[in-house]
Structures are given as C-alpha cells and as structure tokens.
Amino acid sequence: MINKKAGLLVGTLLVGCGGSGGGSSIDLERYTLNPYTAANASVSNASMTGTWVVVWSIINRAKGLDGAKVERETTHISRKEFVVVRSGDDGLEIATCTNGFNLLSLENNYWTTSGGSVLVIDKSNTRLSEGAVSAEYYADLVDGGRATFSTEYRANYYKVSDATGPLGGITWNWSDQEGTESDNIYCAGVNRIEGGAQRLSLGTESGSILSIGDSIEVGVPDARFQDRAGSGYKAIELTLGIGDSSFSVYDETDFGFSFNDVSIEGGDKSITLYGGVSAE
What we know:
The chain is 2% helix and 56% strand. It is mostly beta strands. The protein has one domain. The longest helix is centred in the N-terminal third of the chain and has 6 residues, at 37-42.
C-alpha cells in the first residue's frame, strides 16, 4: 500500500481549469507568469545572472501494449519552478532540480545547457522559452503489462530578481545516523498534476535532489532523495508504490513556499526533511 498525503496549497490559485480537444475539461489549476510581469520589468537586462521563475506546461501520453490498460492516456501537468543563474568557474550556470548546476553556452539567439536544453531568447537576458517532444519509451505498468510513453512540454522563463544567492535551505536527518545535515536550495518547483495530485522537487548547491509526489507516475519514482552533501553518496528511492512517503507544501505565495514533514521510508532506512524557499 502507498501512504501518500499532500497538504493543501494555501494562497491564491493562479489559474482556472482549461479545456482539451473534443470539449472535455481538464481538472487542473494552471500556473501563469502574470504575477511576475512587474518584477520582470524591473530587473537588469545587462546579464542573465539572477533568480528566474519558470512556468511549464507538460503533457504526458501513454498507450498500453498488447491489451494492457493505462489509467490515463493523457495527463496534463502545470509546473512552477524557481531557478538561479549565476557566474561559475567555467562561465554562466543554471540550477536544476535534477542535476545540480548546468553550464550555459550562447549560440546565436539561444542558450544551450550542458544538460541538453535549448533556451530561446525572447527578450535579452530577461525572458527565455523552450519546448520539446520526447521520443517514445517503454515502461512496465504497476498491474502488469507494458506501455509506451512520451512527453511534450513548453516552458517560459522570466527573470524576477538580480539576486544570485540561494532560494532557501533544506535540513534532513537519516534514521541510521545521528544529527542533521543542511544545504542551500538553488532550484525548487511544484507540479500540479491533472486530477489534483502534486509533486515537490528541489535541487541544492551540492547536487543533492529531492523529488516526491502523491500519486504513482510511470517512469518517475514515487519518492527519491539523493544526498551528496555529506561524506559519501547516500540515497533512498521508492518506486511503483513500494514503501511509504508523505509531504506537505504550505504558505505558498507567488515568490515561494514552505515544506515540512517530508518523510520517505523504505527498506531498513528512512529520512525526514524540512525547509522553504523564497525568490524575493
């Protein structure tokens, strides 16, 4: 059994439900960049460095093979993410919630990242966009059988501050060791998933990452924490509904949120985490 609990997001919901093809409604409250127009207009356009907000529109598609059934063939996701762009030893670098910092390289009217993204320049040093469709891949289903999956996404970036410091901090404790560890957060995001589920993801200075959701997503661990801040690499990951995890996201504003009671338990170890972020 899965023990998944997500706290209600407190504050103003940013957009109402949209529509899909054929007139069917989409049960999803979408994020927008509207709350960031004033902040974006006030930042320096002399450099890319600063704090950025990214709003993603994501569509996951699934198709069962050989009679296998998928719960939802199309899933819409709206994601809001805060990231920091700063000057590093090798040039500009952008924080990610999956792989620490990626290097940025300028190519004509777009930036490429060492992680493979292509960021189109919409407005010099203050607005970017990207979009892609993934190749199909295969994955096993929880109830047996296999399916093909693909992802289509569009993202828009607004620079909202010239600050390049951390967004906030995270503290954690492993069940099999004494004391706590802490790290600075440079990437933080929340997914709103069609139907009401959520996913929280964080990336830190050391490259430690947290990803935790309150619904099963094929090809995505239910919960994962990779600890690269301490002495040696340590990780816990739950997949396909195995193990217990829970989290709460609260005090959400346009520029940040807090999280607490993040708990991941699997096998002979568990971990708890808490912290918060602010892009102001």
